[in-house]
Amino acid sequence: MSQDTNIPNGDNRSRASSGMRHKPERLEQCDWYWGNITREMVQEKMREAPDGSFLVRDAASSPGEYTLTLKKGGCNKLIRIMHSGSFYGFTEPLNYRSVPELITHFQKFSLAVYNEKLDIRLENPISKKLSSDLDTSVEKLFDALAKKELEFKTQNENFTVIHNYYSSSKNDVAKANIEISAQKQIIEMMHNQIQALNGYRTEITDVRELKELEDNYQLLSRRTTIQEQALTHIQKQLRDFILQVNDFEKQINQLKPQLIAIQRDRLYYNQLLLDRGIQGADIMLDLHKRSGLVTPAVESRSNDSDVNHYENEESVYMAVAEEDEDDAIYATFTALNYERREDEERRRRQAPPPPGKAQYVNGRGVTMKKLSTMDPSANPGTLSKTSPSYSQTRFQDKEPYDLPPSYPTATPRDSIVRPPKHNPLEEPQKWLVSFDRDEARKKLFESREGTFLIRKAGNPKQDHDDPMAEHQYTLDILHHKDVKHVKINYHKGIEKYGFAAPYEFPNLVDLVKFYSKKSLKQHNPGLDTVLTYPLYHQQ
């Protein structure tokens, strides 16, 4: 429920039964009624109040009506109290004979009857006469503080367990990325060797040498297959690890606001006791007697009564993420904060190994020593350590080998396929642009709903959640008369694109085609749209 929101009708009690035999209390006698005070004053009164705290003031815009301010989820909710005749309430029909009767009722019953998001009672009145309020007596404050201490201890232990799993999964992701990089280097070296051997098969005339070369070729091919299978397995493991990290991160993000709210409550009750002249040492001693649950946060607070608000919440892992660009809708999950190593040149060709004693055949140097026998079932992960030396060739007089052209797959930065021009979604020139952010917004504001473009990221950044993922492109789309921005990441480990893990698209065309039919709301509930019109589509 947002500020200044009328609560939906949910109370079906009759007027006759609601106030019968109940003598209304005068509103001016209620300590939670503050009369004609400003919203700024209300915010100050509610600043460190726990959830369930409330007060009532005169409505600024509607004479004769009132505004209930309620703390829920760490935020102030403003609820209009309507008035008609001699009855009051949140919605029609108005069933309460006075504002005190309405407040008294919801001090016992939850407001969820009106709105499921307001599953809370009016528990803690913000009183003008705090010293005479029975609900804030010293004994009750000690009870409330001890309760919050126990609640904090339980939730923080749960948080710690989940955070440890999260850290472990994060380490698994880092190790898998390193292993994938090593496997790719091994496979690339093997392909270079195979290509070199294949080039000499037509140049050797000696039967014995040709037989040795053929044996080397077959053995190296089998080992390459083993390494490629191992790479596929590690890439699958990496995807599983990323999903685990995301799952634990979601749980952590759910616990953070709960811990923050409990921490605020602890400090609130502790400050009330300090305001009553109780020394910090006495507060700790009483809590030790009650439960033995004094935590460092309360101990520090109790020993320093000059601190007006809690400034450091690191003890409960509560670093609150700042929002990114104000109008951006980013689909990536980010919570990890470790340094990322420089991106190696992933497709750089390996330098040839040091040449051994070479025999010269038709003017070309090639070592004809036969490869040692190796069990193909051996652990492929140890191949780089245990494999014998492969045939050495001189590459200086050979042109660099390029794989034959095929349907393009993802490569860093520029992986744009160019299919036949029959579908504008399959034509990158229709939606891939070189604009900057401002120019992209200007172009899209002149277009119709659902128009989109993709541009290179102005400042590519590595993803905090995965060292192998990098923000390389940005999708801009016009939705509800506003331009929304979504990061497109490229994952170097599995060589695919996507908005978030798991990365599934080998190129940008496949991504565009998929989201032309699938809504983007799976990444953000506020972006329920598909990629409909490329920027340069001729209607």
UniProtKB/TrEMBL annotation:
Gene Ontology BP annotations: phosphatidylinositol phosphate biosynthetic process
Keywords: SH2 domain
Listed name of the protein: Phosphatidylinositol 3-kinase regulatory subunit gamma-like
Organism: Oopsacas minuta
Compositional bias annotation for Polar residues: 1-17, 374-394
Region annotation (Disordered) ranges: 1-22, 340-424
Signal peptide extent: none
PANTHER family for this protein: PHOSPHATIDYLINOSITOL 3-KINASE REGULATORY SUBUNIT, PI3K21B, ISOFORM B
Domain SH2: 32-126, 430-535
Upper lineage: Eukaryota, Metazoa, Porifera, Hexactinellida, Hexasterophora
GO CC entries: phosphatidylinositol 3-kinase complex
InterPro entries named among the record's database cross-references: PI3K_P85_iSH2, SH2, SH2_dom_sf
One Gene Ontology MF term: 1-phosphatidylinositol-3-kinase regulator activity
Highest rank taxon of the organism: Eukaryota
Keyword Translocase: no
